[in-house]
Design goal:
The complex is a heterodimer of chains A (137) and B (552). With 137 residues, chain A is α+β, with helices and mostly antiparallel strands. Chain A is built from four helices and seven strands; from the N terminus they run H-H-E-E-E-E-H-H-E-E-E. Chain A has a three-stranded antiparallel sheet with strand order 4-5-6, with no helix packed on it. In chain A, strands 1-7 form a two-stranded antiparallel sheet. In chain A, strands 2-3 form a two-stranded antiparallel sheet. Chain A is globular and about 35 Å long. An eight-stranded antiparallel beta barrel of chain B has the order 8-10-11-12-13-14-15-16. Chain B has a three-stranded antiparallel sheet with strand order 4-5-6. In chain B, strands 1-7 form a two-stranded antiparallel sheet. With 552 residues, chain B is an alpha+beta fold. Chain B contains 14 helices and 17 strands. Classes of the chains: A alpha+beta (137), B alpha+beta (552). At the A-B interface, helix 1, helix 2, strand 2, strand 3 and strand 4 of A face helix 1, strand 3, strand 8, strand 10 and strand 16 of B.
Chain lengths: 137, 552
Amino acid sequence: MTTLFSRLPVLLVCLLVIGLDVPSGSAQTEPSDPAEAADLPGFGVWGPAYRLRNVPEGMRLVVRASGDRGAATVGSLTRSATEVLVLNCFPEIVPLDFEDASPDGKREMLGGVWCQIDHYGMTGFVPGVYLDPILGR
Amino acid sequence: MKQFFLSGAFLLLTVSSALASAETCVASAPNGNSLRVYDAPTTSGPVLGGIGVGTCGINVTNQCEGTMCVIAFPGLNGWVDMRHISNSPVQAPGLMTSADVLGTYVYGVTGGSGKVTAAGVTQPTPVDATGTVRLEKSSPTAATLVLPREVTDAPVRLSGSGAGPWTGGFGSWGGMPMNVSVRFDGLGRQSASLVLVGQNQIASMEINLNLAAQTLPAGSQPAASAPVPGPVPTPQPSVADGGNACLELARITQIINRQARTRQVQDLRGIYVIAGVTSTDASGDPGACQRALDLIAQDEGLWKLAENGGVGSTAASPGGAVPVPRPSPKDTPSPSGSQSAQTIVPPPAAGTAPGESPAGQEALLAEACVILQPAVSPLLRGTSREARAAVLKILAVQGIVSVASAQPRQCAYVMSELIAAGLIANDNRPWALLAQSGATAGGQQGEDPATMIAGGIEIGIDPSDFIPEFNPQGEGVSSSPTGTPASAGPVAGNPCIALGNAMIVTIRLGFAADIDGFAAILKKHRVETLDPSEARTCQNALMEARQAGLVR
């Protein structure tokens, strides 16, 4: 049973934005991260952002608390969701393997895993078969 | 009832609870997505891979330089920038500080927990792990803590010394009267904590935030600090006497990581991949861990390190339970050696004739992966990137991410391809024939390649993965938890949603009398959930709220 406690924050979040970020305009100026300059773009499954595929029209994709179809639902994604970030997949997809694979190969690899995703703050697990890497940008 | 709203204020800080509080996790990354794992203690070195932000279970070794330390993560060992790691038991020397330095200390929130008690009910509230908090130390015993303006406008004065505790308080949360006490522990340390405890006459709350240092005052790092030593492993009996292979592997990994050169760390990383080790804690796959131990035992360099680290003085395999004969150099070159350009001879399969009869072929096929593993290991861990890429390509064709979990026919195929590519010597066994044969070893004949991915499990499309779109026309709406609308419009007909929205508006307006009035109505109608199944209850409360002029 969903309680008021667990519903309310979501509704509130729709209207309010409060976080623990230091308010803009404050004196905080962090030094630039030296890693930033030398970093390459994302690597392996973490390289691209993802859109959804294989989600029927009029349906949303269920996001679960863990990589199991019996796990609790934590949210859902509209079928047109984009900029989905992959935090992790299991079984692990070897990064080099993923990098070297063709777009179809990447999709095929994703077809055998569960992935932990993040979509604008919502974190949970979806089968990789629904993830479509956005390549070439 | 005000508690609900107070809880709401706290819950605004909450979205996810992806991070466990006590684990060592990737807290952030320069690119926002994944933290690079480097081949050397510099961020300009080759990248071995990446670990997603929020991923936990990172084992940090005591091998550190500057802000970089070697981490061990399933399938990925290498150097990471510790500024992006939270809750590490090991501190990078470059990040150590005395906490005596005046200046600004910035910490990122990496996780934590919270709870709100209202009307005798306590609800846990996970915390958002994306924010930062800033503490400005103005004297040895005084500091100010800057919290978001939405929480409190004025900086919070804290008093304390050293690493803490630093304590203080403020009188309102989000404009509502509430005595909130603040306690900050771990100032100057890589990991710190912030506890906010608030209370008024109708509600109480507690939020515990786990923090990881992002920016510490300049000049606070000691010049020649040594890494904080972790627990020193003591020599233990091998797993032969009943120990867990994964725990043993974790222990040996730690020993090797402390002493190994980067190259050897890579060797170890390769072993994890090849053996299919995904976890070295007690819940790890003992078979995979044992395979990794066996491979370590076959690697002259790594085994020597493990021996020197106190694993044992005998030449026996660290696994013990399944001793693996140490191959002679002519059979299987040490992966730590320079194998990039040489042709590797697969070790002969014990007692197996080269497949002259159907029975012989069957037996050979059954051993295909056993033979492939030591043959492919040096290539994957070798210095030749080309060879490594070629092997990975061949493995990818078969969807193999772990030789340990591959099927015999897949291994036979890989063997034939490796031989054809000249990556290993031709052992005159009929690998190509076996790969295409109707032999049934492993039971994988005719299997759809898609089901061979990731150890033979295909996670296909399933109707249980879908729920109806709330708003078929609103394709552009962002994600939202199940059953909760992203926009009020299309679902405004649901009285529970309308009620929730009305509550939000009331909270935003902030008139205490209205809030109390709303609380009384909810209590009267026993509204305990906004689940659409409670539509009738919601409807009654909504009607009364409308009559009371509380719905705008």
